[in-house]
Amino acid sequence: MFAGLLGRLSWHQLPKVPITQIGAITVVLGVVALAVLITLLGRWKWLWREWLTTQDPKKIGVMYIVVSVVMLLRGLGDAAMMRVQQATAAGSSPGIVSSDTFQQVVSAHGTIMIFFVGMGLMFGLINLVLPLQIGARDVAFPFLNATSFWLFVAGMALINFSLLIGDFSAAGWLAYPPLSELKYSPGVGVDYWIWALQISGIGSMLSGINFLTTILKMRAAGMTLMKMPMFAWSVFASMSLVAFAFPILTVTLALLALDRTLGMHFFTAGAGGNAMMYVNLIWAWGHPEVYILVLPAFGIYSEVVATFARKKLFGYVSMVWAIWGIVVLSFTVWLHHFFTMGAGSDVNAFFGITTGIIAIPTGVKIFNWLFTMYRGRISFKSPMLWFMGFVVIFTIGGVMGVLMSVPAIDYQVHNSLFLVAHFHMMIVGGVVFGYFAGITYWFPKIFGFRLHEGLGKLAFWFWAVGFCLAFLPLYILGLMGATRRLDHYDASLGWQPLFIVAGFGLILVLIGVGFQVLQFVVSIWQREQRLDLTGDPWDGRTLEWSVPSPAPFYNFTHLPVVTERDQFWVDKQAGISKTRKFEDILLPKNSGLSVVVGLLAFLFGFGMVWHIYWLALLALLALVTTLIVRASNPEPEYILTAKEVEKIDNALRRRKQVV
Amino acid sequence: MKVTATTLDIKQLEAEATDKTVLGFWTYLMTDCVLFASLFAVYAVLHGNTYGGPNGHELFKLPYVLLETMVLLTSSFSCGLALLAAQKRNRSQVLLWLGVTALLGLTFLGLELSEFRHMVLEGNSWRRSGFLSSYFTLVGTHGLHITIGLIWLTVTAVFIRSRGLTDSLLKRLTLFSLFWHFLDVIWIFIFTIVYLYGSLNV
Fold first, then answer.
1. Averaged over A404-432, what is the pLDDT?
2. Per residue, what are the HEC states of A399-411?
3. pLDDT by residue (tens digit) across A211-234?
4. Nearest residue on chain A to B52, judged by CA atoms?
5. Which residues contact residue A489 at a Cβ distance below 8 angstroms, ignoring those fewer than 6 apart?
6. What is the pLDDT of residue A3?
7. Which pTM was predicted?
8. What is the pLDDT of residue A636?
9. Whole-number pLDDT of residue A601
10. CB atoms inside a 10 Å sphere around CB A488
11. Residues of A in Cβ contact (< 8 Å) with B49
12. Is the distance from CB of A429 to CB of A486 less than 8 angstroms?
């Protein structure tokens, strides 16, 4: 009778495959080691008060980035397994993992990299920089912001739990039905996928609403939209896409969950279901998602180029129009992900043309950056290197994309490694390089010291060269007919040498990652040598550089007034220094309820995955209660008086004089 | 907010906060609108996939649905009256009209559930066909929103009863009324596209 209480959960669900066992043990040991370390250092209280319950977007941003970096390492581990498998599994050799495990690894890699690395780094950087850049002290809804983060963590925890108990989806990163339907994937894998994404996706949607409101309502006095820094513009556009696209994902995941749990027939092979509807729906979200990730990266590049070329951004207005052109077009191209659906030549032609057109605003942006560099006094700091690597890789990948926008060509390379190479060039070359540039660029603003430049440059070169070695062969392999998610191939095809080259490329990338980790360790170790005492380590242009580093939790002692684009740069040129003024500041109090919401969302998801419905129901009821408790709190804020602000500011200044 | 000696213009700050909340809530409603639009699109694709089961013409009873519609529209009217009373700071009237709204909302939910129950008992559950899956999901999602609205309404009413019509509660009431009217609009679309159009024998 008690067995029923645990749904599908049982001891038999513990991992049996050696590779998964290693993964599970790594996760458990990692968590235990972390817990022991915190206990030994006696830092639980500090962690809870200073970090977990914080409502300060800068700290939330740091937490997002920490989680994402850990997930990046896991995603890279998955990538390494795939590379080893494909380099070895030719002819009589079966490779290192079974076919089923391989499919799980592929699915986990894609899901984690997009949702828990890409999205996490993006929201992290937005949290760090956006309020500072628009001259605000906070985001519009601080509690909601913290809650979004904890929903993200809940989703992340759920997906990693699949390593410990049960298995993960083997249906690809977008879980196409009918394969992902109960009949063909009866295990818990797809359910883990659904609920991890559903929970973190709702968090993303709430973040989208939050940042949209922040941008529209909290800009500094005088900062009209056309005076916003380009990063703020790109966030504005990206968050608009979030608001329009994520509800579609919510619906799609919910319908698949209804099929699997209540026996509905949305996407089933029989009983009036329509599997291609799923593919349409998921890409109606999925294509904008690509731009959700890349637009903020474009914003970062715009800041980085202007700063390190020491010129104002070329073609500001055209840049803004290009961004919004991409926003609109991104909703008109989703069918290019499945030209082979057979919608007919007219439909395919329409989507082929709209896809080709997207290259125009993107090209405008590339040229704007190049013209910004033209005749600039460029300093080749590591953020700038990431940018230049991006231009090369992204342009190659982009041209391949335009090539595939021709339906006739797409029929040839559909579902092949050619496509895999293309989108990795866009997402790694475009998105990840951009976020790396952003992290290096804004690191001193958040922590008060710079990252080690030499190690950063080494990391870049290993990444860039390794990345090209890892993915250029995939173009050729794709043209030779190698399909994606391939776990074994015939030796006579002659693909193995190219797969081995790709594997070698990944080794270089991993060395690059090693240098990045080393960069963090060395920089923290020798932080005294790299202190940023001016608050303006790169000779920056925008408002975030006008406050001391690390930026105080209230951001500005008094809210800035803006009359120009790049106000801080203009002031520096005119020799105007900031006047010291202090005012009372209203700030949000810490709240542990966001953490509770995240925990309950996790329990709800876990209950749904394993069909432990009493747990899911209890968690849901507790969630509603938590929200009511929050709603009954009449005093979520406190006042920091001008005197206290002055004291903190003086302390920051003394630090400058002492060193 | 605690009364602390401060140079901050608390009234001004609260007005700004309300401004932000209203814009944020409108944005949320638009995301919800996209959510329903997706469900409508799914229904549009699947409405003919009856897989040998009944179609809308055989299932829907228009007079019954008209009754549901009237109940829901009236609840929107009483919600409007509650808001008017709130602006006049008349607490007992606010509670009265909120009570009426809750009652009508509950009635609507009861009518909908009994319609669902009827269909399921006749063997036409969501498992029957793609059409019925999309029907139950679209209409049910609206019902779920109504349920959430009723919880929200109850909580707000309880706070108003115990704390009086504070500014922050007035703000919440405004947001609730936006939500409730929005659900009305969605229902109009459901009534037209699902029920009226579905009842046509085409």
1. 95
2. HHHHHHCCHHHHH
3. 999 999 999 999 999 999 999 999
4. A271
5. A89, A90, A482, A495
6. 58
7. 0.96
8. 81
9. 98
10. 15
11. 265, 272-274
12. no
Pick the range with the lowest mean pLDDT from A324-328, A398-402, A599-603, A638-642.
A638-642
With contacts defined as CB-CB under 8 Å, which chain B residues touch A259?
A: 133
Task: Suggest the residue from A217, A244, A256 to mutate for an interface test with chain B (most B CBs closer than 10 A).
Answer: A217
Q: How far is B195 from chain A (nearest CA, A)?
A: 20
CB contact under 8 A, B45 and A212: no
Q: How far apart are CA A502 and CA A471, in angstroms?
A: 6
Are the Cβ atoms of A247 and B31 closer than 8 angstroms?
yes
Shortest CB distance from B42 goes to which of A218, A243, A255?
A255
List pLDDT tens digits, range A147-195. Answer: 999 999 999 999 999 989 988 999 999 999 999 999 999 999 999 999 9
Q: Which stretches of A528-634 are DSSP H helices?
A: 567-574, 593-610, 613-631
Which among A173, A193, A140, A156 has a CA at the least distance from the CA of A64?
A: A156
Q: CB–CB of A586 and B24 under 8 A?
A: no
Tracing tokens 């009861």 back to the chain, one arrives at B110
Q: Are B16 and A228 in contact (CB under 8 A)?
A: no
pLDDT along chain B (202 residues), means of 10: 64 88 96 97 95 92 96 97 94 96 98 96 95 97 97 95 90 95 97 93 64
Q: Which residue from A217, A273, A642 is facing B20, i.e. has the nearest CB?
A: A217
Interface probe, candidates A264, A341, A626, A629, chain B, greatest B C-beta count within 10 A:
A264
Mean pLDDT of chain A: 94
CA distance A82 to A499: 10
**pLDDT single digits (tens) B150-192:** 999 999 999 999 999 988 899 999 999 999 999 999 999 999 9
Contact of B3 with chain A, judged by CB distance below 8 Å, is answered with no
> What's the rounded Cα separation, in Å, for the pair A66 and A83?
26
Q: What's the rounded Cα separation, in Å, for the pair A6 and A280?
A: 36
Q: Which of A101, A138, A119 is nearest to A21 (CA)?
A: A101
Residues 482-511 of A with CB under 8 A from B: none
- Whether the CB-CB separation of A335 and A286 falls below 8 Å is answered with no
**CA-to-CA separations, A194 to A168, A175, A176, A343, A461, in angstroms, rounded:** 11, 9, 12, 28, 37
Q: What is the DSSP letter of A265?
A: -
The three-state secondary structure class of A165 is coil
pLDDT digits (tens, 9 = 90+) for A274-303: 999 999 999 999 999 999 999 999 999 999
For position A632, what pLDDT does the model report? 87
Query: pLDDT tens digits for A8-61?
Result: 888 888 887 888 888 889 889 999 999 999 999 999 999 999 999 999 999 999
Q: Is the pLDDT of residue A1 over 50?
A: no
A501 — pLDDT class (breaks 50, 70, 90): very high
Distance CA A122, CA B3 (A): 39
Q: How far is Cα A16 from Cα B140, in angstroms, rounded to an integer?
A: 41
* Cα–Cα distance measured from residue A309 to residue B81, given in angstroms and rounded to the nearest whole number: 61
CA distance A455 to A460: 9
Are the beta carbons of A272 and B130 separated by less than 8 Å?
Answer: yes
- Chain segment A324-347, per-residue pLDDT in tens: 999 999 999 999 999 999 898 999
Q: Tell me the Ramachandran region of residue A95: left when phi exceeds 0, alpha when psi lies from -120 to 50, beta otherwise.
A: left
Is residue B133 less than 8 Å (CB to CB) from chain A? yes
Which of B:58-87 have CB within 8 Å of A?
Answer: none
Count of CB atoms situated within 10 Å of the CB of A219: 19
Closest CA to A239 of A358, A134, A324, A133: A324
Cβ <8 Å between A631 and B151: no
**A530 closest CA partner among A461, A438, A455, A432:** A455
Q: How far is B32 from chain A (nearest CA, A)?
A: 7
